[in-house]
Write a structure and sequence with these properties.
about 550 residues, alpha/beta, 6-stranded mixed beta sheet, globular
Length: about 550
């Protein structure tokens, strides 16, 4: 009896020892993931540095990759969940100003993504051992591509965007899109994660040893990186030889989300005042931002349900009738339809309206890619409680547009036709949309945006950095007219040539280079490289598993 008790006591002591041994390792792993989350967030524009520490991106995630080697299988999804939750809570902190639920939805969404991503990285570590850092780099970019697709598609946080101020690397996107840039940036993190998979003791010795062992791979990476920089340095559009389009961009610095007649009245007053000043520069067009004028112009003209709103619409139309310059205006377009019950119903589009000199309406673009939850939620029947929750939060649902509209106007300053398209706000964060416009004939991309609600310079810059890549991908100038920032002109090489500081009332008049040259490789093939990285990730793992299984069944 005493022997049995003694054995149980020893077993209990051993179990306690194991728990004490494992607990510090788990805490170390959590600390490493927290470090990665912080460095990842600071690589982008943040509350600490509004331009971001882009150099951090090259090794920001190496602690996270190191954890994937060290962690137990059972812990993999939960460590991933932790990294996704913390990373996006810090990186997208400004979402708390966008919509009450968003600051919870986005971090939880990425926690879910990482919940599944980390086991995949663990599989790669187990199957490929010495070369897993190569496979992990490919897996990471494949994951980045996949998370931009579907209803929940979201492009913020793709690691390649951190290089938006490094033009030679930005221009690589004319070949591969953002995906090639991301691969170059993530590789060092994956490699360093492999170097320190067993901890950081004698770190310099481990680094030297691994560099020697993997020198062939590192030399190949260095050559590819140098080749990319060389390509980005020489593959430029000579903007001095291009004809230009003179535009005036109005930044009136009022958040339309404040709502109400007083806000709309003050907004129109500022827009008119700034536009009259801008007109003195004799631009070819004056551009107002997304929903710069909120009352639906056509709706209130036809139906006049609200006298005060109609008063504002009439004032705007009277103003446009006096203008000798075309105007592009962001507006809520209301349309009357008959629903399935045979009843009349108003639907709304987030739209860009083009007006000719004299105020005649020439054309409309309706936003095709809506922001999930806050602009669009197609799952009313499947998740009725969430739909009701969004409705009670006063969500303004929009209808999706179906056409990639290309506007065409004359240029007074040069003898060319200007063909331009107008991705609205969030749409310029997706490469495929601007590419589709260019394929349809657009030679300038005009993004109209409302980011005033954020109250954050970092949020404004995080959005603007996507436009830099849209310009370089297609070698077409990108113009951004925003109500609070960042209003700017970006040339076909992805260089920001002029801009207005955020959150001030001002306007910007500038010459926009108009490039009509042949399509870039990216414009021709789109996000093919992103798809290739997904296919490679799956193929490598399945092939290795097949080889591993064959060895087991053929083993005597």
């Amino acid at each position: 009896m005493s022997g049995t008790l003694e054995n149980k006591k020893k077993q209990l002591q051993q179990n306690n020892y194991q728990i004490e041994k494992k607990a510090p390792q788990s805490l170390i792993n959590m600390a490493l993931l927290l470090l990665s989350a912080i460095m990842f967030s600071l690589s982008f524009p943040s509350f600490i540095n509004s331009t971001g520490f882009s150099f951090l991106a090259y090794f920001a995630l190496f602690p996270a990759f190191a954890v994937t080697y060290r962690m137990k299988w059972i812990a993999a999804p939960f460590f991933g969940l932790f990294l996704g939750l913390v990373s996006y809570a810090i990186f997208n902190y400004w979402l708390s100003s966008f919509f009450p639920l968003t600051i919870f939805i986005v971090p939880l969404l990425y926690a879910t993504y990482y919940f599944f991503l980390f086991p995949v990285l663990k599989i790669s570590d187990t199957l490929f051992i010495r070369k897993s850092y190569i496979i992990n780099s490919i897996i990471w970019v494949g994951y980045e591509y996949l998370r931009t697709k579907g209803f929940l598609g979201y492009s913020y946080g793709i690691i390649g965007y951190t290089q938006y101020l490094f033009p030679p690397l930005v221009r690589v996107s004319s070949l591969t899109g953002i995906w090639g840039v991301s691969l170059l940036v993530i590789f060092p993190s994956a490699f360093l994660g492999y170097v320190f998979k067993d901890g950081f003791k004698d770190w310099l010795v481990k680094l030297k040893k691994t560099v020697i062992e993997e020198k062939i791979v590192l030399i190949i990476y260095a050559l590819i990186f140098i080749a990319a920089l060389f390509y980005g340095s020489i593959n430029t559009v000579d903007v001095s030889k291009l004809k230009t389009w003179k535009v005036s961009l109005i930044q009136h610095n009022i958040d339309p989300w404040q709502g109400g007649y007083a806000t709309y009245r003050e907004s129109l007053t500022r827009l008119k005042r700034l536009s009259e000043k801008a007109a003195l520069d004799s631009p070819d067009i004056i551009i107002w931002s997304e929903t710069s004028f909120v009352p639906a112009i056509d709706w209130h003209t036809k139906y006049r349900p609200d006298p005060k709103m109609y008063e504002l619409v009439k004032e705007l139309k009277d103003f446009l009738a006096t203008q000798t310059i075309p105007y592009l205006i962001g507006n809520d377009e209301g349309v009357l339809i008959t629903d399935e019950k045979g009843e009349n119903k108003r639907i709304d589009y987030n739209a860009a309206l083009l007006f000719e000199p004299g105020g005649k309406h020439k054309g409309t673009y309706r936003k095709t890619h809506l922001v999930p939850f806050t602009e669009h939620f197609p799952y009313k029947k499947q998740v009725p409680f969430l739909y009701k929750l969004l409705e009670e939060a006063d969500t303004h649902f929009w209808e999706k547009g179906k056409e990639y509209t290309v506007f065409e106007i004359d240029s007074n300053n040069s003898d060319i036709k200007i063909k331009f398209s107008t991705p609205i706000c969030f749409e310029d964060t997706f490469g495929y949309i601007s590419r589709e416009f260019v394929l349809n004939g657009a030679n300038v991309i005009v993004n109209i945006t409302n980011d005033s609600w954020s109250g954050s310079i970092a949020a404004e810059v995080q959005h603007m950095m996507h436009a830099v890549f849209r310009a370089a991908e297609n070698q077409r100038s990108v113009v951004r007219s925003t109500n609070g920032g960042i209003t700017c002109i970006i040339d076909p090489n992805g260089k920001i040539t002029s801009r207005i500081d955020p959150f001030i009332e001002s306007f910007l008049t500038g010459e926009v280079p108009v490039n009509n040259s042949n399509f870039t490789l990216y414009t021709k093939i789109g996000d093919l490289f992103g798809i290739i990285f997904v296919i490679l990730s799956i193929s490598f793992i399945l092939l290795k598993l097949a080889i591993f299984y064959k060895k087991i069944i053929t083993k005597p």
